[in-house]
Amino acid sequence: MAKIRVLVVDDSATMRSLITAALNRDPDIEVCGAAGDPFEARGMIKALNPDVVTLDIEMPNMNGIEFLEKIMRLRPMPVVMVSTLTQAGAEMTLRALELGAIDCVAKPADALGTQDALNEIVVKVKTAARASVRTKADAAPAAVRTKSYMPSGDIVAIGSSTGGVEALLAILTMFPDTCPPTVITQHMPATFTASFAARLDRASGARVQEASEGALLEPGKVYVAPGGAAHLEVVRSGGLRCRLVPADPVSGHRPSVDVLFNSVAKAVGDKAVGAILTGMGRDGAQGLLALRKAGAKTLGQDEQSCVVYGMPRAAFEIGAVEKQVSLSSMGQSILDLASARR
């Protein structure tokens, strides 16, 4: 099988060297070039035709967001963004993911985190090489906030990974201020989830927030699992509440979709709707199966609308998915299943 050819774009010579060395150590990857700024990178993309580009967000002359917009308009290709662990970096990264970047990696804050970050870049480059590039023109059509939902007492649990920023925006844009209590686990670096929740909040009729320990699940509210340190669970304690569990990764992730889905199956049984969205790997498949066995309604995003048809495929293959639907139909399908008129 041909190696994945990667172009590394970063204004730091040190970072270019570290990323290049890490990628070249993988037998499936070959770094075909490295550029110090977007102008140099533009010529190298034309000359080298790489399979994947790693792109620093903060660069002189033209920042990574501006360059990504040009790439996605003129020559769409898989791009992995490399961002600093700052509020501004998080917001720009979310913008990049909305524009069509496949995934993001946080730059290490210190020497101790360098190897983990470099290992993560390798994994995400290999995922990006297999992903379906989605430009804004390919994205789900602008959603119209639904008026047909009637509260039923059900809750909604959603799991997603690579491509999930676009998917969750498309879904929650449809949610009204009366939407069912909704819990979400999206694989994302710890410093990005608060900004992501705020971005979803601006787009949705619902109130979207980062989940906190003990938060009461209420209609019209959406709770996004904080990245990195803990798993999000739903428990009964004077009502349904969020619980943050600082435990080892499950299914390779923390927070894990499997942990969230399993907790919802245990806490509410058939009074739930579970949906598994685009992402690499198998996280969420067994948890969605537990939900379906408990009597909950379950949905999986279809292959055609996924950036990476990994998690939904794994769930579908074990019988966890009751129905596969496109991203453009997912928001309404979730609300229909959770509605009292069902």
TrEMBL record:
Q: Name one Pfam family in it.
A: CheB_methylest
Q: Which domain of life is it from?
A: Bacteria
* Active site per database record: S161, H187, D283
> Which residues are modified to 4-aspartylphosphate?
D56
> PROSITE patterns from the xrefs?
CHEB (PS50122), RESPONSE_REGULATORY (PS50110)
Q: Which GO terms describe its molecular function?
A: phosphorelay response regulator activity; protein-glutamate methylesterase activity; protein-glutamine glutaminase activity
SMART domains, alphabetically?
Answer: REC
- Mind telling me which SUPFAM superfamilies this protein's record contains? CheY-like, Methylesterase CheB, C-terminal domain
Q: Which reaction is recorded as catalysed by this protein?
A: [protein]-L-glutamate 5-O-methyl ester + H2O = L-glutamyl-[protein] + methanol + H(+); L-glutaminyl-[protein] + H2O = L-glutamyl-[protein] + NH4(+)
Q: What is its EC number?
A: 3.1.1.61, 3.5.1.44
Q: Name one GO cellular component term.
A: cytoplasm
PTM characteristics: Phosphorylated by CheA. Phosphorylation of the N-terminal regulatory domain activates the methylesterase activity.
Keywords for this entry? Chemotaxis, Cytoplasm, Hydrolase, Phosphoprotein
Domain spans labelled CheB-type methylesterase? 149-341
**Ranges for the Response regulatory domain?**
5-122
Primary location recorded for the protein, binned into one broad class: cytoplasm
An example GO BP is: chemotaxis
Compartments, record wording: Cytoplasm
Q: What role does it play?
A: Involved in chemotaxis. Part of a chemotaxis signal transduction system that modulates chemotaxis in response to various stimuli. Catalyzes the demethylation of specific methylglutamate residues introduced into the chemoreceptors (methyl-accepting chemotaxis proteins or MCP) by CheR. Also mediates the irreversible deamidation of specific glutamine residues to glutamic acid.
Q: Anything noted about its domains?
A: Contains a C-terminal catalytic domain, and an N-terminal region which modulates catalytic activity.
Q: Which family does it belong to?
A: Belongs to the CheB family.
Query: PANTHER family, per this entry?
Result: PROTEIN-GLUTAMATE METHYLESTERASE/PROTEIN-GLUTAMINE GLUTAMINASE, PROTEIN-GLUTAMATE METHYLESTERASE_PROTEIN-GLUTAMINE GLUTAMINASE
Q: Which HAMAP family match?
A: CheB_chemtxs (MF_00099)
Q: What is this protein called?
A: Protein-glutamate methylesterase/protein-glutamine glutaminase
Q: Which organism is it from?
A: Caulobacter henricii
Q: Source gene?
A: cheB
